[in-house]
Design a protein that fits this description.
With 254 residues, the chain is an alpha/beta fold. The chain has eight helices and twelve strands. α4 runs antiparallel to α5. It is globular, with a radius of gyration of 19 Å.
Length: 254
């Protein structure tokens, strides 16, 4: 399935946040949206998921404009992992993942819904936590549960807003490896991410935003010291360590 966005613009009142944004996501690929704070990464994710309504632009999914889907139909195509998940009401891990089946459930879950949830919990190594209250999970454990909820929607594309922002190094790697594994099953992933080295390691394509516009888009070739300095205002070195691209900050630009 292909997602194609063209000429997207979004403003908060009089403040322009996104302008003339375009991108294409192909089936099975991971696209990372990168850029400094305030460049529009999270806003773009929310526009794709229709949490926010762009003022202009086309978002085409399944050869249809996203605005023509009902919320229930859209939830069957797009899974969403927010940047922050409030933990207030007691619920088990199983029940939270089961919420992802809501687009397919009329008034009670069917056997196939329960089986899918069980399979996802097993796939994500969450079985020991299945009956635990999510309010008692660590940040890394909770993030895997929220990703499991999105996967339970059986989406074509999973949208992730800063999925590693509050995690330690071990859990960052676990979450990004998990996303990579899931895309090998055929779904696509679009994620906003800060860490350029992790983005380089776990992405097929990139969209680099600067002040709400697409500064550069493409593969790893756009991660150049010149591009990064111009967008982030930081001089960097790009090194190759055991086959992995590593972005090393040096100094801020004068």
């Amino acid at each position: 399935m292909e997602l194609k966005i063209s000429d997207l613009a979004f403003s908060y009142e009089d403040k322009l946040v996104l302008k003339d944004v375009g991108l294409t996501v192909e089936q099975g690929e991971i696209l990372s949206i990168i850029g400094p704070n305030g460049s529009g990464k999270s806003t773009l994710i929310k526009c794709i998921n229709r949490i926010l309504q762009p003022q202009t632009g086309k978002l085409i999914l399944q050869q249809q404009n996203i605005k023509n889907f009902t919320p229930r139909e859209l939830a069957c195509y797009l899974g969403y992992v927010p940047q922050h998940e409030d933990r207030k009401f007691p619920a088990t891990v199983f029940d939270v993942v089961l919420l992802g089946r809501k687009p397919y459930i009329d008034w009670k879950p069917k056997e196939e819904d329960l089986k899918m949830v069980s399979d996802i919990i097993s796939r994500l190594d969450l079985e020991p936590l299945a009956m635990r209250d999510v309010n008692k999970l660590s940040g890394g454990q909770l993030q895997k549960v929220i990703i499991g909820r999105a996967l339970a929607q059986d989406p074509e594309i999973i949208l992730l807003d800063e999925p590693t922002s509050s995690l330690d190094l071990k859990h960052q790697l676990e979450v990004l490896e998990l996303i990579k594994t899931e895309t090998s099953r055929g779904i696509s992933a679009v994620k906003a991410i800060h860490d350029l080295s992790l983005a380089a390691r776990f992405s097929d394509k990139f969209v680099m935003l600067k002040e709400g516009r697409v500064y550069a888009a493409g593969g790893p070739e756009i991660l150049t010291p010149a591009n990064i300095e111009d967008v982030y205002g930081v001089k960097v070195s790009i090194i190759n360590h055991q086959g992995q691209t590593v972005v090393v900050p040096q100094t801020t630009s004068a």
